[in-house]
Amino acid sequence: MDLFEQVEEIMGQGEICDSCLGQIFANRGHGLTNRERGRAWKTVLAMENEKIVEREVDCWVCLGESYRFREWADLAVAEVREIEFETYKIGTKMSPLLDENAKLLRELVGISVDSGEFLKTEMNREVGKIIGDRTGKSFQEDSPDIVILLDVSTRSVEIQVSPICIYGRYKKLIRGIPQTKWPCGECKGKGTNSEGVCERCGGSGKQYEESVQELIDSVAIGATEGESSTFHGAGREDIDAKMVGTGRPFVVEIKTPKKRSVDLQILEESMNEAATGKVEVELEGIVSRKMVAHIKELPASKTYEVGVKFEDVVEKKLLKKALEVLEGVEIEQETPTRVIHRRADKTRVRKVYSAKGELISPTGANLEIHGEKGLYIKELVSGDNGRTKPNLAELVGVEAVVETLDVISVVAEGGSFRVPEYMLRQKESKDMEK
Length: 434
Prior knowledge:
By secondary structure, the protein is α+β, with helices and mostly antiparallel strands. The chain has 12 helices and 17 strands. Strands 5, 8, 9, 10, 11, 12, 13, 14, 15, 16 and 17 form an 11-stranded mixed β-sheet that branches. The chain has a 4-stranded mixed β-sheet with strand order 2-1-3-4.
């Protein structure tokens, strides 16, 4: 069957619009729309058969949907009016009936059901063009700012707003606050229990009043007019530890933001003002969501300042010898007693890269320890009742505990936390990563 016969066979199945006819031949006539292809065939047939074919018909295949592209664009433009975006993508949830009609047409004329393209593809393309013309924004296939979803069955439009991810480093200047929001252990974050308001948290649902996350996120949510947020850190420090020195890399991910063109310098200043004396941030830029996986998966060594208290007097030479033994050695650590209730009980092997320090009193010392990711410093000092070997207490022959713990650097091993290809927009006048 030649093309003319195919077209005549299709036209013989009932009224069909230009677009639905053109979809069958989408692989022919490069540069034409499906409507233009279908109209061209109808024109040729009209000349051949000396009859006039109407431009718009009651199409049994798409039920007129092919002529509603501008209506869909109107709905979409109205929905995105309050959202700030530069790039977009269109998706269509097609009516099952229209899908079946398109397949039935191909079966009736003996064509492969995969021939040409379907209305869903055409809607994505043609409605997308109209939206681009009206808004001046750009279509982007991968990681657009928003995705516009057209639901043909319900004749509705849904807007999915991509999160905005802000990358930087934070310092925790005080002890006693966790990195992320910590649900109350009594009410599990609900704020209430069977007796009413939870007495432990006073109804807040939180174990601790503040967290690094909340101090940072609250400002970011306000600046972007987002709905919620997720905080991603390159590891975390203990609640009773400070994070000082060069700071810890983090990404704050703001969900459903209405604003994207935030001034990072102003945002940084606002964050630091809101968290004065508690947390200090240094923002790097806006990044793709790939940065989240990167900072979480990239191994990072950490350097700590450790204040140690010994149960008895320790000689200077003995401490020096013990630190020499620890330096460069692999430590076997069973899951610490203090966290075994929430982590699997297993043995981990972690390396101490360097260990140095000095006595500041007969029973006290200040140490600087550089260790592999996952090395438990408190247990490296105390031994945790033999669950960590070797350990400082064992080597000096005197029981020891960590009194103060500060993280002074977090350094990526074999890579960099700051990945240029993930950086969408860098803060102006910002130095490169330390």
